[in-house]
Amino acid sequence: MALDRAEQPDVRAIVLTHTAPAFCAGADLKERSSGPADSTPMVRAMQRLIEAPQPTIAAVQGPVRAGGIGLMASCDLVVVQPDVTFAFTEVRIGVA
To answer: Full-prediction pTM beyond 0.90?
Structure first.
């Protein structure tokens, strides 16, 4: 995982970025319909960002949905392009 490398002592900053089109669309809700939700991997990634000794920066250039907002909030600094949109889609469908 990229965070394993990012947590090494020679790393001076962690920049969380993405491949277009979206910064993060959150969890695959269809995948979660087959059983109880396991948010452990996402929660652990957020904890690692929060606890990292290096400064963490989210560089956001695409839409952010659901868990992506949590990833942004886990960083020390968030830089967002002016046309980026945000949504808590899980609230709309009643799974929050």
So the answer is: no
Of the candidates 91, 53, 54, the one whose C-alpha atom is nearest the C-alpha of residue 69 is 91
What is the identity of the amino acid at 46? M
Given a cut of 70, whether residue 30 has pLDDT beyond it is no
CA dist., res. 8 & res. 72, Å (int): 21
- Digit-coded pLDDT (tens) for 63-83: 998 889 999 999 999 999 999
Catalytic residue numbers, as ranges: 90
| Distance (Å, whole) CA 47 – CA 32 | 22
Q: Please state, in angstroms and as integers, the Cα–Cα distance from residue 50 to each residue in 28, 31, 54, 94, following that order.
A: 23, 27, 10, 28
